[in-house]
C-alpha cells in the first residue's frame, strides 16, 4: 500500500477527536452556506465539473446510483436530472448537510427518486454488487481511511459497474498553480470569514487538497483496491480531476 499523507490532514489540529468526527462536525457547521460558498468561491465552476463527470456516465445508462459523501445532494440531483435513473441513494456522515439536501430534493419534487441516508462510506450498509454506478464528488479526500472507503465503493458496485470520482488536484502549469495556491490558501478562507464561515474549514480544504494523491498516484490506488482500467481527466488547468474505473 502507498503511504497516505492525506491521513494526517484533519480540520482542527488541536482537537483530540478522530478525523471522521471532526469532518462530520465541520460540515454540520458549514452546511447552511455550503452551496452558496461553493458557487461563490468557484464562480460556479464546481457546477460545470459535476456536469462533465455526469455526462461521461450517460453511455452506461445506470438505473441504480450511489452517491457517496453526497453532502447537500448536488451531485445526486444533477445525476437524476441528466441521467434519469430509477433511483439514486446518497450517503453522508453529516446530518446537517443531508438536511439541506433533503430540503432541495423535496422542493424539486424528487423525494421518491433520491434517498439521502446518514452513513459512513467506510462501512456501507448495502449488499455487495448493488449499484450500476458509484460516484463521489469532493468526498474521498475527507475519508479517514482512503483505501477502506474505496474498497467499500467497489464492493457495492455491480461487476462491470462504473466508478466516478471528482477530486481536487494541483493545477499545471506552475504559474497557474501559484495563483491558485494563493487564492485557495489566503483569499478563500478570508472570503469565508466575511460570510461568517469557519475560516479553518476553508484552510482545511486547501491543505487536504494539496496533500491528496492526484492523477496517476490516485489511479494507482484505484488499481490496488481492485478497480480495473482506472483513468482520469484533468479539468480547468488541473484544478480538479474526474477519475473513472470499472469493477
Ligand atoms: C466537500 S463535501 C462534498 C459534498 C457533495 N458531494 C458535493 O459535490 O458538493 C464532502 C462531504 O463528504 C462527507 N464525508 C466525509 N467523510 C465521509 C465518510 N466517511 N462517509 C460519508 N460521508 C463523508 C462530508 O460530511 C461532506 O458532506
UniProtKB/TrEMBL annotation:
<feature type="binding site">
    <location>
        <position position="72"/>
    </location>
    <ligand>
        <name>S-adenosyl-L-methionine</name>
    </ligand>
</feature>
<dbReference type="InterPro" id="IPR023576">
    <property type="entry name" value="UbiE/COQ5_MeTrFase_CS"/>
</dbReference>
<dbReference type="Pfam" id="PF01209">
    <property type="entry name" value="Ubie_methyltran"/>
</dbReference>
<keyword id="KW-0808">Transferase</keyword>
<dbReference type="InterPro" id="IPR029063">
    <property type="entry name" value="SAM-dependent_MTases_sf"/>
</dbReference>
<dbReference type="GO" id="GO:0008425">
    <property type="term" value="F:2-methoxy-6-polyprenyl-1,4-benzoquinol methyltransferase activity"/>
</dbReference>
<comment type="function">
    <text>Methyltransferase required for the conversion of demethylmenaquinol (DMKH2) to menaquinol (MKH2).</text>
</comment>
<keyword id="KW-0949">S-adenosyl-L-methionine</keyword>
<comment type="pathway">
    <text>Quinol/quinone metabolism; menaquinone biosynthesis; menaquinol from 1,4-dihydroxy-2-naphthoate: step 2/2.</text>
</comment>
<dbReference type="InterPro" id="IPR004033">
    <property type="entry name" value="UbiE/COQ5_MeTrFase"/>
</dbReference>
<feature type="binding site">
    <location>
        <begin position="120"/>
        <end position="121"/>
    </location>
    <ligand>
        <name>S-adenosyl-L-methionine</name>
    </ligand>
</feature>
<protein>
    <recommendedName>
        <fullName>Demethylmenaquinone methyltransferase</fullName>
        <ecNumber>2.1.1.163</ecNumber>
    </recommendedName>
</protein>
<keyword id="KW-0474">Menaquinone biosynthesis</keyword>
<dbReference type="GO" id="GO:0032259">
    <property type="term" value="P:methylation"/>
</dbReference>
<feature type="binding site">
    <location>
        <position position="92"/>
    </location>
    <ligand>
        <name>S-adenosyl-L-methionine</name>
    </ligand>
</feature>
<comment type="similarity">
    <text>Belongs to the class I-like SAM-binding methyltransferase superfamily. MenG/UbiE family.</text>
</comment>
<dbReference type="GO" id="GO:0043770">
    <property type="term" value="F:demethylmenaquinone methyltransferase activity"/>
</dbReference>
<keyword id="KW-0489">Methyltransferase</keyword>
Amino acid at each position: 500500500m502507498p503511504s497516505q499523507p492525506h491521513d494526517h490532514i484533519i480540520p482542527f489540529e488541536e482537537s483530540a477527536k478522530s478525523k471522521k468526527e471532526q469532518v462530520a462536525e465541520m460540515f454540520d457547521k458549514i452546511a447552511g452556506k455550503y452551496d452558496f460558498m461553493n458557487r461563490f468561491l468557484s464562480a460556479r465552476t464546481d457546477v460545470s465539473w459535476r456536469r462533465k463527470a455526469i455526462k461521461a456516465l450517460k453511455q452506461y445508462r445506470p438505473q441504480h446510483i450511489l452517491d457517496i459523501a453526497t453532502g447537500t445532494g448536488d451531485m445526486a440531483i444533477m445525476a437524476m436530472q441528466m441521467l434519469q435513473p430509477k433511483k439514486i441513494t446518497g450517503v453522508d456522515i453529516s446530518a446537517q448537510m443531508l438536511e439541506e439536501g433533503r430540503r432541495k430534493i423535496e422542493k424539486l419534487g424528487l423525494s421518491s427518486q433520491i434517498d439521502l441516508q446518514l452513513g459512513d462510506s467506510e462501512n456501507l450498509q448495502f449488499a455487495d454488487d448493488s449499484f450500476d454506478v458509484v460516484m463521489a464528488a469532493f468526498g474521498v479526500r475527507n475519508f479517514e481511511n482512503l483505501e477502506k472507503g474505496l474498497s467499500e465503493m467497489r464492493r457495492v458496485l455491480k461487476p462491470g459497474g462504473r466508478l466516478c470520482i471528482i477530486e481536487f488536484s494541483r493545477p499545471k502549469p506552475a504559474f497557474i498553480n501559484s495563483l491558485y495556491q494563493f487564492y485557495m490558501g489566503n483569499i478563500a478562507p478570508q472570503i469565508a470569514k466575511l460570510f461568517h464561515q469557519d475560516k479553518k474549514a476553508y484552510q482545511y480544504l486547501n491543505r487536504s487538497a494539496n496533500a491528496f494523491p492526484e492523477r496517476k498516484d490516485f489511479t494507482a490506488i484505484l488499481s490496488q483496491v481492485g478497480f480495473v482500467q482506472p483513468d482520469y481527466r484533468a479539468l480547468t488547468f488541473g484544478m480538479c480531476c474526474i477519475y473513472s474505473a470499472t469493477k
